[in-house]
Amino acid sequence: MRQSVVFHILVVILLTFVGCESDADIDISAERKTVLFAFVESGDKCMIHAYQSIFFTETSSKIPLGENTTIHITIDGKTRYTKTMSRDATSIEFENLEIRPESKIVVVIDKDDEPSVYASSYVPVEPIATLLRSEEIEKGGKKYKNCTVKLVDGGLADNYYQLVARDTKTGTLIDDIEYVGRIFEESKASMINDDKGRGLFTNANMIGRVITLTCNVPIENLQGEIELELYHMTYEHYCYMQSVAIHKDYMLLPVFSQNGVYNNVVNGIGLVSGVGRCKIILP
Amino acid sequence: MQTIHSEYSDLFKRCLWCLFFIVALCFNGSRAYSAGTTTIDADTTSTSIWVYLPETKYETTDSLIRTVERISNLTISYSSRVLPYANRPIELKHKRWQILELLNKIFGRYKVQYHIEKRKVIVTPPDGDKRYTISGFLKEAGSKEVLIAANIYDMVLLRGTVSNEFGYYSLTLPEGNVPLRASFVGYAPKEMNIDLRSDTTLNIELSRYNNLLNIEVDVVNFEPPADAGAGVVSIPIQQVKDMPSLMGESDIIRAMQHTPGIQCGEEGFGGMSVRGGNSDQNIVMLDNVPLYNPMHLMGLYTAFNAEGINSATLIKGGFPARYGGRMSSVLDIKMREGNMHKFNGYMNIGLLSSNVMFEGPIIEEKMSFIVSARRTYADIFSGYMQSNNDTRYSFYFYDISSKLNYIISNRDRLYVSFFIGSDNLNNDYNFRDKRIKYEENAIRDISVNDEQQYRWGSIVSSLRWNRSYNGRIFSNTTASFSRYRFRNRDEKISDERGSGEASTSTYYSGLNDYSVKTDITYYPSLLDISSIRAGLEGTLHAFYPGYTMIKSDISRGDTIKAEKQHPLKRVEGHGYIETQIQLRNVGAEAGVHLSLCNRKDKSPYIQVEPRILVTYKPQSGITIKMGGSCMSQFLQQMHVATVETPADMWLPVSSTLPPPRVWQASLESEVKLSESLKLTIEGYRKKYVRLQTYKTTSGVELLTQGDWEQLLTSGDGWANGVEFMLHKTGGRISGWLGYSYSKAMNRFEELNKGKYFPTDYDKRHAITVYGVYSYRENVDFSALWTYGTGAPLTIPSGQYILMTDVDGHDGENTLAALPGERNKFRMPDSHSLTLGCNIRFDKPGGEHTLSFGLYNVYGKRNPMFVYWKPQDNSAGETIAYNLKQFSLVAFPLPYIKYSFKF
After folding, report:
1. A265 within a domain of the structure (yes/no)
2. Can you tell me the mean pLDDT for B385-406?
3. Rounded to an integer, what distance in angstroms lies between the CA atom of residue B649 and that of residue B865?
4. CATH classification of B335-791+827-901, choosing from 3.40.50.300, 3.40.440.10, 2.40.170.20, 2.30.30.40?
């Protein structure tokens, strides 16, 4: 995979000079932060993920927030729902909510006397998309489902979207989708890697118009059916997904080590965002 | 935090008191020297008073007058017009004087009038005295290269001036016989008598000393009224060439970074930081045109070839009103103009690069040229070493500068300058034909060409016209173009029996400047006002904040052509007026700079920036300077990584991001301890408003997001510090000892909980010891030791699992770094020693110089950057992370360079 420009430059510098790696004598005092993730759709349910970050010296896993952790959800500044997390839980589901498109939501975590961890967002309307065409193709020795979807943009404002595919049996997102067309290229997260943009795009220059989307979904390892999902995202969600792609490439490159993923959580880290979803099951 | 701030303020105040204390000691010393006892034998008639003086030598003329007043019981009244330099030393031939004879001695050549009433003597200038102007150029004999900041003065009146950036001077003096003296460091002074009866044009040529050891000290203690301002760093180019350095490359900016108040990134990487400011707060002017990328190899080397430079001056405080557009410093570099008399050349061969320079007349005494060029050759060796690899890397940089100088007439001159500097990095993957086995018994030949090119660099060109009007008005008009561009080109071509795929994508960022400006300097005939200068400038900036162009993509059956990318355009205007005033032992430079920049859909930003510098010379050898300035800028460079990279972007101000602004106050005391030893102590305080930085990351998202304004946040900051410099020039041992204590803090509401935190260049202590020992006339040894506090550091303090699936599945088990507080930690301190030696041989045909030395003599592993390194188990799984540091030069690195001048 192609590396970053700076990485290449550093390689040359290393060739030119006599570089040396050694242990750094710096006292890094570690800290934990509360991690909060929630993708809120219109309906009556909402899953909140809340846990603690870990130190670099720990193996990767989620650490529960522990006892006395309460989660509050406020919808449109009026209705407030509260639940207490169990000691070992890292997520909690709220039910019997009344979340409508364009509702404003606030998620708050309170624990003991610590400052509240909170974030707010709104729920975008569900996108209107229909399947135009779907056929099986072979490319480079691999089999794909070539799909074309028509999306009618809501218009009036900048809209942010993502097209993904899910295996209906496993429930997981399908990797290595080939997104075809300039609309995906222009939203590509990084100009210096091979990331295909993760299906992100905007309605730039196409506000209120019909947008045609094409992708090739690999089907060789498929266990169930293919479900195309089109998300209408908030700007924060779009920035977050882009920064995730960048972060994957840059996290451990020395000169980019301070870069983080987009965050809209106050006194913590993570993302709370509304999302509008449209599902299309391929024949 | 408030307590820390308060403690630091106290420390700063104490340092300032120390500064005053030192100055006060000097004053007390002078009083003790001038006090004395004597007898008086005076006739009570006013015209025949005789005075017996206690001494024949006086540190200042003023102290002699005060002594005469005291012992003769006379009151002597005079204005600065008849004695403009009362702080000059004076030596008498004997102690017994008749009062009028003594007054004539004191007031010199002036045709003054004395009005004596009882015990009071009033000294006035004669009625209707005439003054005339001497003007012209100061040049080097032989080459006719102009001398910038050379002195020219009346040896009796001790009234003089310095030549401007074009070598031009203008001096107005009373009519009569004028004993003039012209002098410049490293050149033999020249004395001449001028019978001044009308305005006169006088071009003066000075000869360079061949042997620096035998330089005679300029015995006339002239200190020009237009003395260098506060916070000015100027290192002679020859000293830059002789300084030991990494790989032996002469480097003007690196040399300046070894003086107090100027710093660079870790291990020499990154740009220049002046008094805690970011590198984009410095403007580098090449012949008055801004140069946006003055460095090669990510900041390791300066893009200027020292052989083509006439002078380089860095101003870090007390800014004249003529400068604007940046907040921290002005580095003013003047290229040489070329020898008007004969062809010369220079070449050197070093480990990293080779230089050549040619200069000479095109039309003798009328038109000359100079061309210098440099190129590295690491790519040649690396290409040979990688000849059998599938993947090849190559890197080189080069720079070319040239200048044409045409004397149209005695009054008019034309200059055409051009500079280009470029770094080039190429990566070629799988550049050979390959035989690929697709299926059983199916082997196909495939031709794959896959390469990446990275290029970045600057182009500067200018056309300038100088004109002198009647000796008292000098104008300079410049039309210029400046460009910086970073470009990344990806090309993938594969061909399989005529069918295949090809795609080319190009990413670029940078900016173009188109500029016109004019400066007019008026030299009035008034004794108290040396010059009045005013100017106007207009610049059109065209910013390209990261554009990708995909030209073709055959693989998917379609061809995509990029649309024309429109730059962000801003118009920036500047205007100023400044004057230099000299009143006895007090001088002042005052002015105002007005700058403006348009913005979309709103009225333009307008910044009014007052500037003042007051110079007080209580006695010979001591100068106190107080400066105040306000500076702002309409563009900034945002970094995409923790070190400066060529992909960093210049971005303009916008309606949501107003221009940052800084106020700076400085106080400097300069004490001349001997003819060759000078101590400078300077304190400063800066207050920033509307600074901008990234909200949460270091800015790699700049490479991807067009909406860069959303990534930035505004805040404020301050910086203050004290700088000491003991500088010895001339003699067998020369060099300097420099120390600076500085602190620079920023505050942004969205970072570090809104608290103040150290800036990226907040290096508290910096020490430099640089010495040159001239063993023989042609052999010198030099040593350079530097120490610096580690730079502030932002590093992830933990990690967390991301969630990218809206259904709640973990994001491919992706771990993200947990951003720590901005600049919470600090790198280890760094220090290193570099030794060098220069041996010169004068052989027929020219001067040969062999330079060699050792960088990082005791092998100190100074950190360039630190990072978390994954520690994997045998199965390739990461089990832990360790904090590592990377050192660029971890053990002694020798250098050798040969140069030849003909």
Report:
1. yes
2. 83
3. 21
4. 2.40.170.20
SS3 A242: helix
* Residue type present at position B409: S
Q: What is the CATH number of domain B131-211?
A: 2.60.40.1120
Structural contact between residues B260 and B768, judged by C-beta atoms closer than 8 angstroms: yes
The DSSP symbol for B206 reads E
Contact flag B803-A15 (C-beta cutoff 8 Å) = no
Would you tell me how many other CB atoms lie within 10 Å of the CB of residue B844?
4
Domain membership flag for residue A197? yes
Please indicate, yes or no, whether residues A179 and A241 belong to a single structural domain of this protein: no
B400/B384 Cα distance (integer angstroms): 26
Asked if A111 and A204 sit in the same domain, the reply is: no
Bigger pLDDT: B215 vs B773: B773
Rounded (to 5) percent helix, strand, coil in chain A: 15, 45, 45
**pLDDT confidence of B326, banded at 50, 70, 90?**
very high
Q: How far apart are CA B463 and CA B402, in angstroms?
A: 12
A263: burial class by Cβ within 10 Å (0-12, 13-18, 19+)?
Answer: buried
Whether A9 is in a domain gets the answer no
Interatomic CA distance for residues B488 and B494, integer angstroms: 20
Nearest to A60 by CA among B159, B686, B881, B48: B881
Chain B CA closest to residue A231: B806
Judged by CB atoms closer than 8 Å, whether chains meet at B488 and A258 is answered as no
The identity of residue B471, as a single letter, is: G
Q: Where in chain B is the domain with CATH 3.55.50.30?
A: 36-124
Find the radius of gyration of the CA atoms of chain B.
31
Degrees, nearest 5: CA angle A98-A101-A106: 65
Selected from 1.10.340.30, 3.55.50.30, 3.30.420.40, 1.20.5.420, the CATH number assigned to the domain covering B36-124 reads 3.55.50.30
- Please name the residues between 710 and 769 in chain B that touch chain A, using a CB distance below 8 Å: 710
Q: Which value, in Å, is the radius of gyration of the alpha carbons in chain A?
A: 21
Nearest to B804 among A191, A239, A244 (CB): A244
State whether residue A258 sits within 8 Å of chain B by CB.
yes
Interface of B with A in 123-182 (CB under 8 A): none
**Spatial distance between the Cα atoms of B305 and B372, rounded to a whole number of angstroms:** 7
Over residues B275-281, the mean pLDDT reads: 90
Q: Which residues of A touch B828 (CB under 8 A)?
A: 24-26
Task: Flag whether A14 is in a domain.
Answer: no
Do A131 and A224 reside in the same domain of the chain? yes
The answer on pLDDT for B472 being more than 60 is yes
ipTM: 0.89
Mutate to test the interface with A, among B450, B803, B829 (most CBs of A within 10 A): B803
- Per cent of chain A over pLDDT 90 is 38
Question: Which residues on B lie below 8 Å from A271 (Cβ)?
Answer: 803
**Chain A contact present for B549, CB below 8 A:** no
A8 in contact with B, Cβ within 8 Å: yes
Buried b (16+ CB within 10 A) or exposed e, A138-171: eeeeeebbbbebebebbeeeebbbbbbbbbeeee
Report pLDDT digits (tens) over B138-175: 988 877 888 888 888 877 666 778 888 888 988 888 77
d(Cα B404, Cα B367) in Å, to the nearest integer? 7
* Residue B753, helix vs strand vs coil: helix
**Number of separate domains in chain A:** 2
Token pair listed for B138: 């100061």
How does strand B282-286 pair with strand B329-335?
parallel
CA–CA separation, B565 and B825 (whole Å): 41
A131 and A120 within one domain: no
Q: Do A22 and B883 touch (CB under 8 A)?
A: no
> Which domain does A186 fall in, by range?
127-233
